Amino acid sequence: MHRPTHHKSRGALTNPASRFAAGHTVDFDDGWQTLAEDSQTPPRPPTRLHADPARRVISRNNSPDVPFNASINPYKGCSHGCIYCFARPTHEYLDHSPGLDFETEIYYKPDAAERLAAELSAPGYRCETITLGANTDPYQPDEANLAITRSLLAVADRFNQPISIITKGALITRDLDLLTSLAQRRLVSVFVSLTSLDATIKRSLEPRAAGPAQRLRCVSALRHAGVPTGVLIAPVIPMITDHELETLIDRAAQAGAHSAGYVMLRLPHGVKDLFREWLAQHYPERADHVMSLVNQLHGGRDYDATWGQRMTGTGVYADLFAQRFRLACRRAGLIPGRRGRISLDTTAFAVPPAAGDQHRFDFG
């Protein structure tokens, strides 16, 4: 059954079948009042963890509008439950729904650190910055116990491997010891995602992510520890969060951010239907206006995946927002866009000696 149901600390209201499923079901009234009989609110689905052993952990992309080539996703699925997450459709490749399944059926790589060390030690490896958090958040709630991301940072620390992190999880401050060590060698940068300073919006939009004040405290803590830190205003949602742009930029600058970027709302595949359900539930009075502006951004559609414009959109609204963003950054003293990305050191990379290796000595 697919009637929208709002569960506390869950983002999606339904759990539609994967687009690759052989069969799909829909609710309908068969004349026997069974819909009314089955209308009781279902229980909130629990989070279930699945070990996901991997042969390799470094993924590579050749997208011209993605500013990195290599990335690692310690988790598949994300219990932050952000309704807008563009990664939701990836769960369909696992025969799961992009809805509630995405935020409750969480896969983790228990051997991620071991696999990373093996890949970095391979004779053909050429050092380049690796991004953590390109798809799902590396600091989602279950990282507190699993510590997969921390184990990856420990490997990077040993190999002098540069790492870039994207997160909206306050748990990142747990790893300040490793991040500080990496930062001292110009081997790490962090981007913290900011969406809204309104706690009410955050509770339904990103139910299990860190609150806005927590994220700003993370920015401050990271910069105080010497870690280069920027912010991503992402996603920008017309008529829901777009009015906060200037305030978000100002608060980020006050917290110590050195740069800022932004990404417009993206609604690929089934995310568009999940987002429309969320709008109808939480903002029914403005749902049509929101989607009208979203359509204007993407050539009359809910989403346009064209490289170079999928992140920013096109048209009058997109152009005006870009101007606002540049002006806000200039006023706050932040470096805008890709110019704010930190160049990390790839020259110090070295495979550490393994146990039992003979050390080489230079006697002159």
Percent strand equals 5-15%
Report the span from N to C terminus. 77 Å
Strand order in space, largest sheet: 2-3-6-7-8-9-10-11
User: Which word captures the global form?
Assistant: globular
Q: Determine Rg (CA atoms, Å).
A: 22 Å
Number of strands: 11
Largest sheet: 8 strands, mixed
The SS-based structural class is: alpha/beta
Mean pLDDT: 92
- Return the CATH class: Alpha Beta
Summed up, the domain count is 1
Please, how many helices? 12
CATH topology category name: pyruvate-formate lyase- activating enzyme
Low-confidence stretches: none
Order of helices and strands: HEEEEHEHEHHEHEHHEHEHHHE
Q: Would you identify the CATH architecture? A: Alpha-Beta Horseshoe
As a percent range, the share of helical residues equals: 25-40%
Concise description?
The protein has 364 residues and is α/β, with parallel strands linked by helices. 31% of the residues lie in helices and 13% in strands.
What does this structure look like?
The protein is of the alpha/beta class and 364 residues long. Helices cover 31% and strands 13% of the residues. It has helices at 34-37, 100-104, 112-121, 143-146, 148-159, 176-183, 199-205, 212-224, 245-255, 271-282, 287-297, 316-332; strands at 48-51, 59-60, 70-72, 75-76, 105-108, 130-132, 163-167, 188-194, 229-236, 259-264, 335-336. The strands form two sheets. It has an eight-stranded mixed beta sheet. Strands 1-5-4 form a three-stranded mixed beta sheet. Helix 6 (176-183) links the parallel strand 7 and strand 8 (188-194).
